[in-house]
Sequence to fold (323 residues):
Amino acid sequence: MGYGSIGKRHIQNLSNYSDIEIIVCTKRKQDIFLKKNKCKVIKSLKKSISENPDFAIISNVTSLHIETAIELANAGIHFLIEKPLSHNQNGVKKLLNVIKTKKLITLIGCHLRFHPCIIKIKEIIEKKKIGKVLAVQAQNSSYLPDWHPYENYKESYAAKKELGGGVVLTSIHELDYLYWLFGKINDVFSISDKSGDLELSCDDMSSSLLKFKAGIVGEVHLDFFQKTIIRQCNIIGTKGIISCNINLNRIKLYNPITKKWSVQLELKNYDINEVYKRELDHFIKCVKNNKKSINDVGEGINVLKIALSIIKSSKIKKMVHVK
Fold:
């Protein structure tokens, strides 16, 4: 469902499975890419459902995610839904009830949970190599016009508030992996705004403070306007520091006793598509084995609440308790 850049990536990766037939639900004409990957193109969701698919991937615009997911769930179809789950909480409880009733397998498309760096960080933390975690700083900066140079960035869903765009929701990956690593977030305070330079209808920057239930204080900076990609996080513990550069696929560990840094992970020439392949493989295995995924819709709802609380905090200029 949906045939944008992420939809094409999923199609390409699905084509590597010899036992999978791909149906693409899109109103676009069948192009060379779809023909090459032997995709059957159907223009309506209802007709696509009548084909009785084993599972679906929802990759249309954010504002249509819940509506599409409910229709699939009512038909008893397992689904992977791209992040964010939605741009508001309308229909979210209804969707969750149908999923539980139908006993469906779901996965939120937050691919960083499958990234070697994030997995390694989780391992280091669980082994208490840096002791008790006290604070974390995460950043995701990039230049929106460079995302898809072949299209007008102002027409992308990420640039349009009405389609569920905006830096907090579009760049929700950071909130997702921090929630995965450190658990529930109780309170948030944020300043989110438009720089004006990109002429968007939504916020293109956000700086937030997070207070985790575990007592950890987090700082998250997101923006669409930096002309160099910066994606990193630093985790400060009582016995050391983890420094991760996700772009360079490198993790360093600081030992306060020796006062030296040591490289814990460094992947050169790493193909980021491997992360999406891992994600897809995990989902398909969960469907086949009827096993709960690593990041189901219930998890997605929790992370969506954090993102919406950040947006609310910026509007009312106050700290917001995440309910």
The mean pLDDT is 95. Residues 136 and 235 are 4 Å apart (CA to CA).
